[in-house]
Design brief:
2 domains, alpha/beta, 9 helices, globular, Pantoate--beta-alanine Ligase, Chain: A,domain 2, 20% strand, single chain, binds adenosine monophosphate, Rossmann fold
């Protein structure tokens, strides 16, 4: 496995790889890897000649009061996991390498990025789309894998690719959970044992919501969200949002909605966790 720290090294490698006709698969991450990340890597490995994983805690997607400084990092562990999963290139730049000090250009998606995490974290998606756009230019992937753990992010990136004609196929990958149902996240490591067991209420509440929606249809969506808030609050969570939106538009589901994204963001202690269920609308 080759490790690159500079953009120039990655771009030169990618150009050469493309010239030789090889398929490049990209998996962008912020590191502190877990089985969720590795499922994306395995998907990429199965489809690509060359797999590039990026490890970059992207400062532009964190708000001023968020956890940028304490975001968990363990380069040696990440490196070992990538080696074990057959990754070809690990790109791990410093923030100063990725952004010029007077960088002043952004990629911003202004529709799908508005609700949910976009409403709670105003700088978030602009930072994500900008860094992912930069990584696409540098790594020149044929395809890139994104997890449905961050479903809205995945849809925003699909829209960015469509609108700005990036020549990359986005492969959405299933959300991976721990055995007890908690969605895997690098941030789970912030949770105390007590918070972690209380946080299982998120998945429980969303599953209950899914079941009700499947039985009764989207007419009961508001009640489903209210009930989920109750369940999570009773377990000690501070709910940022529980909302059900049309997956295609990220707006309240109308008559033509085919799939609802039932999504939650919840604080346990100071840790903000997100989770979701994608629920097919039956007619
Ligand atoms: P992150 O390092 O949290 O920015 O995540 C990097 C990529 O891994 C994103 O595409 C995430 O959606 C994906 N990812 C993170 N956690 C999971 C999970 N539990 N299941 C599936 N994909 C995940």
């Amino acid at each position: 496995m080759i490790i690159f720290r500079t953009k120039a090294e990655l771009a030169a490698f990618a150009s050469e790889t493309r010239r030789s006709g090889k398929i490049i698969g990209l998996v962008p991450t912020m590191g502190y890897l877990h089985a969720g990340h590795m499922s994306l890597v395995d998907t990429a490995r199965a489809k690509a000649d060359v797999v590039i994983v990026t490890l970059f805690v992207n400062p532009t997607q964190f708000g001023p009061t968020e956890d940028l400084d304490r975001y968990p990092r363990d380069f040696e562990r990440d490196k070992k996991m990538c080696e074990e999963h057959g990754v070809d290139v690990l790109f791990a730049p410093e923030a100063g390498e990725m952004y010029a000090a007077d960088s002043s250009t952004w990629i911003e998606e202004l529709d799908l990025a508005k609700p949910l995490c976009g409403a709670s974290r105003p700088a978030f998606y602009r930072g994500v789309t900008t860094v992912v756009g930069k990584l696409f230019h540098l790594a020149q992937p044929d395809f890139a894998c994104f997890g449905l753990k961050d479903a809205q992010q995945c849809f925003v990136i699909e829209r960015m690719v469509r609108d700005l004609d990036f020549q990359v196929k986005i492969i959405p990958c299933p959300l991976v959970r721990d055995d007890d149902g908690l969605a895997l996240s690098s941030r789970n490591r912030y949770l105390s044992a007590d918070e972690r067991s209380r946080a299982l209420s998120i998945h429980r509440a969303l599953l209950e919501g899914r079941k009700t929606l499947e039985e009764k249809g989207i007419a009961v969506l508001d009640d489903v969200c209210k009930k989920a808030v109750e369940v999570i609050t009773a377990a000690g969570g501070r709910v940022d949002y529980v909302e059900g939106l049309d997956r295609a538009t990220m707006k309240a589901p109308g008559a033509d909605c085919r799939e609802v994204l039932l999504a939650a963001a919840v604080f346990f202690g100071t840790t903000r966790l997100i989770d979701n269920e994608l629920v097919e609308v039956k007619r």
